[in-house]
């Protein structure tokens, strides 16, 4: 069956607005503060399942969840100078309590490096306490001046999972960066989200970092979205807070840090990448409802009731095997209306049950991704549901990766790079000499953004020349039209 | 064994500060914004387990979790006039984004009736969609001018669970108040927290409510703490937002609402009520660690290693039965130091394992509440741990209820009421004519606060006179020195 992805690909922005609202995921644009929306119950569960997955991965690798205050006093936020320069234009400030002016302005946290480093300096005195790996899941605030977009560019980012770690040495922190990358890989893999891993260029690393590694993906409109970042912070913040620890050799020194985060964007991608013109396909790993059962009414009332009873029996069977299922037996809507709404909500599997199924002791199962269905005997329904959910995970992931790969192109010609980016967006990979000046020039000429050096590809560029200056290439560089 | 509760009862405030900091629950007073603290990993887990319990109770009664924005525009917050009068002196205002002044001041939510009612007016059109029961777990902010206290009177309340429900009629909403009370009773009962249920007097109900029912408890210093409230909001907010629905009879009318909340105070009470001079006793229902195993070292290294192996075996055994356990085999601290820290952290059960236990195939289990221990054969350890945890729940609850009941006194004499409250604090119950003027006079004379009419007692007051005006009593009234 040929799937329709017209609206999804051509009018992605409208498609996303439509899905978030109509599937009751995230009400955006109607709450009377720009850039802030409301998680509705169905969306909240998707978000919660996503967060549960990352929590599990973090907890099992020695991370400890904490919760720091939302408000950061001005002097604390400004302690690290590069950091505040990177954020000062987008900080919201609390200046009043009741009718009084506050003595000290309080920032709504844009991120928490400063407050966490300050408290760590009270808690941690010795290498024996290290490594320390904290994380929290909080709202962060950015007074974005660019156009805001639901879940993608918000002024209140409500699902910021930020991890902050502390280490004795630079190398230990570098190793932690690798661990964090491994955790995020597992996380995105489990969710079937394809990603590119790039080392951000110097001029685009996190404000206050030694270096930044980023996860990017390609959205349905072929533009690139950053979905996770990992920063090696070195001693930037510990020096700013004059925070020393006792090292193994007895000396006192500033410890090294990393931080890494993901956000609401993960939900945006989850909804976006597996979509079609019927709506999203919620990934089975985090779908709040795995199966919806729709009884097909019979004209004869007695038979209709028997069908419903049979449907309930199937629902109980699935529930007893820990498969989340709901049965939509509302009498006032037609099966057609029900199909529409549950496809729009992206429930992975739909089971239709009519008199024929009841008489044959079967059910009819339809996959949301392919919209293909088949008849299954009742005694095999649990096995088949599990099996189909697994196949869907695999298929969704493959399809999403294929979509992304088709949008990554290689060229050594500057004009062609510009042309591809202008006409097709996606990602262009080019050979690069390693000089910042050539990277910046590249951004200027193509009117695109450098994502950085690919960390997940091994193309042989030993005979290639820098796309800008024609000196020998040192590495590839990724360029994209980004969100 | 006589337990020592000297520090706990006499210097409760210091005791609480000491426990929160030294047991690494909640770091308070060092973060550089007054009234805001940091949940440390151990405290975060206690908080999380508490929240998980209330979520389970709410989810199973048809409540749906949502997440609304933190920021409420000034005009939205001011729409209901009684409401804003009740809160306006304690609202934090965001007035700047970057270096720009915002066009509209944004409040950090003090509570969410206004924003939720506004969105409900977009979502809900008909009685067919009712009842609706939403809840969220969020930070709320109060610019408290009274002395702040950790977890008890905060400027950032980080664990506000607020529920908001919508109904066709006043009666439906009144029934919802009853359901909410039932849910909170189950919640506090499961946590072993004793409570009094009172209908708050008119002059102390929630700003914008028809009436307010409150749960109060008595803290170790004999002062009363409000730990939960349930409000019938009537049509106050729906009228303010001109929000009508279609009723069953076809007419349009404003729907009725309730709201109810609990907060960080539940954690404060959990830690406080079961304390002694060694620290808190974390209630088994929410203890992040149920059992700590402490191997007692032997001089002979080989034997010491065997003891540790045996201890690990016991730990695995408990884990395999879903009992959260940790083994403290740090070689650099003595058993005495370990006893101190784990008692301070309030882990319900401690298992000591030395050469004797290993040779006899036994373990030595000690209860944190009574500090009594006994030897148990290895094959009975899972059963005995479960059994002891159950007994502890019962005993803790009984002890806490006894403590509270001893501090509730009855008098019909105004001077005596004042004397009791001044000298012993606690709660005094008095007969009352039902007039607000007498209630307010009572507060003035006793310099205490009226908690309201008891809903959980049936004392016969048919022959009693109002303690103030001496007219016939209509009901009892509770009075207390409160937090």
Automatic annotation (TrEMBL), chains A, B:
EC annotation from Swiss-Prot or TrEMBL: 6.1.1.15
InterPro entries listed in its UniProt record: aa-tRNA-synt_IIb, aa-tRNA-synth_II, aa-tRNA-synth_II/BPL/LPL, Anticodon-bd, Anticodon-bd_dom_sf, Pro-tRNA-ligase_IIa, Pro-tRNA-ligase_IIa_arc-type, Pro-tRNA_ligase_II_C
Gene3D superfamilies linked: Anticodon-binding domain (3.40.50.800), Bira Bifunctional Protein, Domain 2 (3.30.930.10), C-terminal domain of ProRS (3.30.110.30)
A Gene Ontology term for the protein's cellular component: cytoplasm
GO molecular function: ATP binding; proline-tRNA ligase activity
Domain of life where this protein originates: Archaea
Catalytic activity: tRNA(Pro) + L-proline + ATP = L-prolyl-tRNA(Pro) + AMP + diphosphate
Residue ranges of every copy of the Aminoacyl-transfer RNA synthetases class-II family profile domain listed in the record: 41-284
Domain statement: Consists of three domains: the N-terminal catalytic domain, the anticodon-binding domain and the C-terminal extension.
Sequence similarity: Belongs to the class-II aminoacyl-tRNA synthetase family. ProS type 3 subfamily.
Function, in words: Catalyzes the attachment of proline to tRNA(Pro) in a two-step reaction: proline is first activated by ATP to form Pro-AMP and then transferred to the acceptor end of tRNA(Pro).
Quaternary state and interactors: Homodimer.
Protein name stated in the entry: Proline--tRNA ligase
Species per Swiss-Prot/TrEMBL record: Sulfurisphaera javensis
Lineage per the UniProt record: Archaea, Thermoproteota, Thermoprotei, Sulfolobales, Sulfolobaceae
């Amino acid at each position: 069956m040929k799937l329709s992805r017209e609206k999804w690909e051509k009018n992605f922005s409208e498609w996303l607005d439509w899905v978030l609202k109509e599937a009751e995921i995230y009400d955006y644009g109607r709450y009377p503060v720009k850039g802030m929306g409301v998680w509705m119950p169905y969306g909240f569960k998707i978000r919660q399942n996503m967060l549960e997955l990352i929590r599990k991965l973090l907890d099992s690798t020695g991370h400890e969840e904490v919760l720091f205050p939302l408000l950061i006093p001005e002097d604390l936020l400004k302690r690290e100078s590069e950091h505040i320069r990177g954020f000062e234009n987008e900080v919201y400030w609390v200046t009043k309590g009741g009718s009084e002016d506050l003595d000290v302005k309080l920032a709504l946290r844009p991120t928490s490096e400063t407050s966490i480093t300050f408290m760590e300096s009270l808690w941690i005195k010795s290498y024996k306490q290290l490594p320390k790996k904290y994380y929290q899941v909080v709202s962060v605030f950015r007074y974005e001046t660019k156009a805001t977009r639901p879940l993608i560019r918000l002024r209140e980012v409500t699902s910021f999972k930020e991890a902050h770690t502390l280490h004795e040495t630079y190398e230990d922190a570098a190793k932690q960066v690798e661990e964090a990358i491994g955790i995020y890989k597992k996380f995105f893999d489990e969710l079937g989200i394809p990603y590119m891993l790039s080392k951000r260029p110097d001029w685009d690393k996190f404000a206050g970092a030694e270096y930044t590694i980023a996860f990017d993906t390609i959205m349905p409109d072929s533009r690139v979205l950053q979905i996770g970042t990992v920063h090696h912070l070195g001693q930037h913040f510990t020096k700013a807070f004059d925070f020393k620890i006792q090292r193994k050799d007895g000396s006192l020194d500033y410890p090294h840090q990393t931080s890494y985060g993901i956000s609401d964007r993960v939900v945006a991608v989850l909804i976006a990448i597996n979509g079609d013109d019927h709506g999203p396909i919620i990934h089975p790993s985090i779908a709040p409802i795995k199966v919806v059962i729709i009884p097909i009414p019979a004209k004869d009332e007695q038979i209709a009731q028997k069908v419903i009873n049979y449907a309930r029996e199937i629902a109980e069977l699935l529930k007893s095997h820990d498969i989340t299922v709901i049965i939509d037996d509302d009498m006032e809507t037609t099966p057609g209306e029900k199909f529409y709404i549950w496809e729009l909500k992206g429930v992975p599997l739909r089971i239709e049950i009519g008199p024929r199924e009841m008489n044959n002791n079967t059910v009819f199962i339809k996959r949301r991704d392919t919209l293909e269905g088949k008849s299954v005997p009742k005694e095999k329904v649990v096995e088949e549901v599990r099996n189909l959910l697994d196949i869907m995970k695999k298929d969704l992931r493959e399809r999403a990766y294929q979509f992304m790969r088709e949008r990554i192109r290689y060229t050594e010609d500057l004009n062609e790079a510009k042309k591809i980016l202008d006409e097709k967006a996606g990602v262009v990979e080019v050979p690069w000499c390693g000089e910042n000046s050539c990277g910046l020039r590249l951004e200027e000429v193509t009117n695109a953004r450098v994502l950085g050096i690919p960390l997940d590809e091994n193309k042989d560029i030993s005979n290639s020349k820098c796309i800008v200056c024609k000196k020998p290439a040192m590495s590839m560089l990724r360029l994209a039209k980004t969100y």
